[in-house]
Amino acid sequence: MANGSLEMWLHPEENGNRQTRKLNFLQRLCIAIDVASALHYLHDHCDAQIVHCDLKPSNILLDNDMTAHVGDFGLARLISECTSNPSQSQIFSTGIKGTVGYMAPEYGVGSNVTTYGDVYSFGILLLEMFTGKRPTHEVFTDGLDLHNFVKTKLPGQVIQVMDPTLFTLGEVGEATAAAENMDDESIEDSVRECVVSVLQIGVACSAVVPQDRMNMRDVTSKLNAIRVSFTGTRN
Q1: Active-site residue flag, 142
Q2: Long-range contacts for 181-184 (Cβ within 8 Å, ≥24 apart)?
Q3: Neighbours of 234 (CB within 10 A)
Q4: Cα–Cα distance between 102 and 81 in angstroms, integer?
Q5: CA dist 178 to 142, 172, 187, 234, Å?
Q6: CA separation for the pair 23, 34 (Å, rounded)
Q7: Which of 75, 136, 164, 228 is 20 to 30 A off residue 91, Cα-Cα?
Q8: What's the pLDDT score for residue 69?
Q9: What pLDDT, on the 0 to 100 scale, is given for residue 178?
Q10: In this protein, which residues make up the domain named Protein kinase (predicted)?
């Protein structure tokens, strides 16, 4: 697509991309809504539920208008196809490779394919989009992972985990400091609440226990509500 993949925008320096533009908060939020809406359609509006099984930044493509499209369905599975034959379902689940860091933990122990797996991947994707850190970042050692890295800082210490390039000078008001000098006082309360709300959704979606995760219908609804709230602060 015209604007490449989300991977190229989140980590340009690692992909030999010289573009200096960064995705701001609203752009990332809109991309997240596009992806959530796509998964909501696959999970809830198809004749048979479709599980993507490999959601990650390199599989999110951006068109001329920066609208996001979910691509690469090479590992996708139909739930009806999987559940109609239990033995076949097990083959499908254990055969999934996925991508380290984005693959739901239950798949690693042979659990069957479910929509919960996509929700987990989306949660990790969302956290990566708004922290700027991959789930495989070198800082995540000794039991620390992206999920817990963010969860332990919410809501009061959100500045410590958010990507400093989310906001540019003046984007959230005259009192906003340059991104690299941000602290808790440099972002308006209403904007901080939007960032916290997005990250809380990411944390909820990437819960270890599948049944504790949100469904994509609710995720899409909440993200849209955050967009309405954020754009309202700009009027």
Answers
A1: no
A2: 183/159, 184/156, 184/157, 184/159
A3: 11
A4: 23
A5: 33, 11, 11, 18
A6: 15
A7: 136
A8: 98
A9: 36
A10: 1-230
